[in-house]
Amino acid sequence: MSRSVTALCAATCLVTLSSPCFSQARAPSNLPTVTVDPARPAAARPARPAGNDQSARRARAARSTAAPQTAATAPVGPAPSRTAPNTQTATQRIQQTPGAVAVVPDTAFKNGSAQTIKDMLDYVPGVFAQPKWGDDTRLSIRGSGLSRNFHLRGTQLYLDGIPINTADGYGDFQEIDPTAYRYVEVYKGANALRYGANSLGGAVNFVTPTGRDASAFESRLDGGAFGFLRGQASTGGAYGAADYFVTGSASRVDGYRDHSWGQSERGSANLGYQVSPDFETRFYLNANTVRQRIPGEVSKTSALNSPQAAAANNVLNDWQRNIDTVRIANKSTLHLDNTDVEFGVFAVDRHLMHPIFQWLDYRYHDYGGFVRAVDDRELGGHRNRFTVGLNIQNGTTDANQFVNTGGNKGMQMSSLTQNPENYTLYAENAWYAVPSVSLIAGAQFLHAVRSQQVNFTLNGDAAGTATYDLASPKVGVLWDVDPAWQVFANISRSGEAPSFGEGRGALVRFYDIKAQTATTYEIGTRGRRPDVTWDFALYHADIRNELQCFYSSFGNCNVTNADKTMHQGVEAGLGLSLLKGLAVKSDAPDRVWLNVAYTYNDFRYSNDATWGNNRLPGAPPHFLRAELLYKHPAGFAVGPNVEWVPQSYFVDSANTLSTDSYLLWGLKATYDDGRNFSAYLEGRNLANKAYIATTSIIDRATPTSTLFNPGNGRGVYAGLRYKL
Known about the structure:
The protein is mainly beta. It has a single domain (2-64, 78-414, 422-707), classed as Maltoporin, Chain A. Helix content is 7%, strand content 52%. It is built from six helices and 33 strands. It has helices at residues 2-14, 53-64, 87-94, 117-121, 300-305, 312-316; strands at residues 101-105, 127-133, 136-141, 156-159, 162-163, 183-187, 203-207, 218-224, 228-239, 242-253, 262-276, 279-293, 320-336, 339-355, 359-379, 382-405, 408-434, 437-457, 464-482, 485-496, 516-529, 532-544, 547-553, 556-561, 564-580, 591-605, 622-631, 636-645, 662-672, 677-684, 692-695, 708-710, 715-723. It has a 22-stranded antiparallel beta barrel. The chain has a five-stranded mixed sheet with strand order 1-6-7-4-5, with helices on one face. The chain is globular and about 65 Å long.
């Protein structure tokens, strides 16, 4: 594995995308997320053919608000890809969703020291992503996966639409490379219908470029605090009907805390071929090698007074998380008059080598396929868009555990064979009552199987099979108030089958755990004006059988079902031009730009027999990220930023132990000449504040409970980026 990734990185040293425009599709509103630089004029949107007068009028209205295209600025280059839409088209497509969604362009995170998923999603309201160690992060969207003390549950991660999560729903962050992507799509909750919508958190899709919009050569070098060093290079191009893109990166870090060093090699490639103007196929390859030490959770006192110290047992038994993965896939798109069909297959080989309380040696063999059709035409004088799809994700896991003796394998403790299966059928119809208002109804059905065979065990593991059949309907409305302003509302249901990791030997049998279901009510708006952008949503979710941690031993959460819980909140993103024309008075003036992402979380038990109406542990009531940047049209920007958690949050269901509030501030300066060269200098936590970044949770905590992950101290980072 290591040799294959190294070769991929070397290849990049030697040497986005526009989705199919449905010939009968109305051009949706172009409403970028709050991370888009408002100083850049919006590109004109593609119009439908002249056959639809109502849609043509709306397309002309959209073009009237955009900057004019001249011969000098008209797009040139290869024909766009059908299988991989570019950032603008992806934004148009995702905003046909009557709910909170976002597209984060690479310009929002590549002009900085983006190291983890947190750095990529920090300014998406409703997303709580906090670092633990290395690439590991606690990710929660609308309170998803709060009981998952390690790794990820409740949100589906995808790479170019191909699952990163294992077939039983467990997820990791080590395979995510922030240098590799053109943009990131965020679908909150059941708004992720196209990916199955089978979890409270929804889906996050990381999209790589293709040779049809990538630079011929691009490279970057980053370095900074705690021994961080990263190099990356990529190449891409198109030759007639064929195109290719290859990227590779290698990084290492000593880590802020003791016993937290790590290194990684990551690579991705895709090769596309346009068989005809209406048919394109694309092959994908992704490979990763990650080696990471784990410092572990410590007590609150240790986290705040000795934040660099690791847990003693983690050092003694050399706790690690090491992963080798290879992912291959094919995706094709076929255009048929009013209908576009997308289909593909994938296979993943993942080897987890994980010395912790025992030495885990797991081999995952996941595979699956998908097909999706979108029919967009006029019916009875009204536009109608019908979507139907099927996703299959199955796998086999060879799960072996051994005694961990100082980081080495000892006596074998168990040998299990796990077989997860997932079959998801979904359909959605959007009917346009008038050209600006669509009424949307959809449904998803998930059939999931979790089967475990015990070959040998000293851990009390049990053989068994659990089957889950979950139906998730949805209705919504989307109103295009004007070409740059939308209002939406929906009522949706989501369902989540447990993973094998929810059970714990004889204490909690995995097949006794019920599926988690939720009904969510949501209303919101998003929009753009020349000097203001906004993204606002209110939601309330009633949850049954929420997967919660009611017992913990050695940091391992043993999950069972709560009765009734409630998640509700406010998600508010704002971009605002406070001042402009300070030194440059022109059509593209300099400006002072405020960017804010605020999340309010109210997560509680609902008249629980044990916990009453206590707050659910694991997430802060308030979380705010903000930056104030001076932006000059010559390409440089500078300004401060803050991260604020003004109120502590509980780490146990009994509400007896909590974190502390904190305020961090930083400073960033960037330069981009708009052609070949960019650079940045960034300072984080410049006051060197000792704080708790994230926690594990438990049912009842004591003052000495080891649940806390301290955040990094003061750090300065710098980087250079060059492209042809």
